[in-house]
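Next comes this protein.

***
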Amino acid sequence: MIRELGRNRAGGRITYLAKDNKTQETVVVKRFLFAQENSNWSGFKAYEREIQVLQGFDNPGIPRYLDSFETKAGFCMVQEYKNAQSLAIPRTFEPEQIKKIALSILEILIYLQNRLPAVIHRDIKPENILVDEELNVYLIDFGFARIGNGEAAMSSVAAGTFGFMAPEQIYNRQLSEATDLYGLGATLICLLTGTKSTAMDTLINEEGCIHFQHLLPKLSLRFVSWLEKMVKPKAKERFIDAAVALDALHSIDLIRTPEVKFSQVMLEFNTTQMGEKLTQTITVENAIPETVLEGNWEVDPHPSDPRFRTKNSHLWISFEPASFQGNQVDCNITVDTNRLMADKTYNRRILLHTNSSPETYVLELNVHTNPIPLLKPPYISLGIVLGMSLICTRLWTELASLFVTQIPALGYWLGTGFMVGFLGGAVLSAIGVRGVQITKIASSLIAIMMLFVIFVAGLIGTFLTALVGLAGLITGFTTGAAIKNHRERGYNPKMAATIPLLMTGLGMSLAMGINFGFLNFWILISAIGTSLSLVGTLFNPYWQRQKLLEQYNQSAQKRRLIKP
């Protein structure tokens, strides 16, 4: 004998840890003192039943029967020793560990129920289930077991422990494979609720049902339903046997966890100016009933980022709220680009830690830093402006050169018609006639009046005046369209008007140079002046952008910018 493991004074039973002198194997010796006062012969009969049952077993989840012998005071049975504690001893298990214990017991029950004849344990409770540190599970104490339809050594009323006995045991009715499932279900309820096996009666209501649901608010509804079915008072309402119960449990998660859904999983930030703060909103939702999603945001550490002062603190990425509780939360994610390099792309990962499964979600965050947008002129529309101004100017200058000597006043009317048409077309095209703003209405009226002047000039002058006015109208229309195109691309009003007008002036200068020769001083000055002004205006955005970059890079050295 090494030491005493347990004692049942009422039944005169003592359990020892011992060593076999022949094999040197550590064993368990169950000693029954039937010759002593207060001993109960029914206990000895239970051991006889246990020996009968154990002799035929070969399962790793059931300690092997080794030997038995009589003593002067009684009788001893020797079994394989398992270094494990019973579930009656208070311990803390994680939900997945409890599920593993349940699966292991069900596998042992399947072994028992598949034997010929089937074996019904009849006394499954926390005290009779051993679990070691590696979560190996063992079922012990087969003293009340029934083999097939044979009668047990003790009456059915006494065979078992109240609170863990199925009603058919209590009322001496026919037992089945579902009988032991009741005891296992009750054992799991004890384990999950922290109820001692001696207090199991406190969970049984007046209808004889185990009322435990209110004590397990975090368990998944599927698992609660599985447990309810295990401990149904009527055997036909339980799982038919351990195999069916095992198959149902495999796909069930014990903990009821929220389910996380994001409105977007990738964030793209594009700056339009240096040092800009940009914000995007992500909606985080949970649709699982009776659960509340909890979460907190964190930026995954990156080698280029400075160390954070705290876990949830970051130099240029922030969250509002940083932590939350709720099933539909709008989270604002803000990027401060003041410490970021210009013309770079930053890739970071943001983490959301939750009480769901999985616990951590990863979202991608990309920031593209553009210090100033590079505005590209609409070259096609500018080319049209140049072509139309050149063609139309040549038209009226040719007409003027042919007829001005015969009709001196015609040159006045041709020039007036062209300019009035040009201005009217430009205003109509650039501003448009639709809209209710006073400026648009006024501008449209002016344009209509100018067109009316062209019509009057055609009546007072000649048909040529109206023709030249139409050419001016076409030139003005293309110029106005180019002005509108520039505004839509983001140019300020001054630049949007200057570039097309300079292009129109260049076309007119080239047309006059073709007609009258480029050696004319005024034509030459006009062509050179408009060309230089146009080139300077077109390249101005590039020069301004380069200048801003140089200034930004100079200040960057002082501010210690963060690398991508």
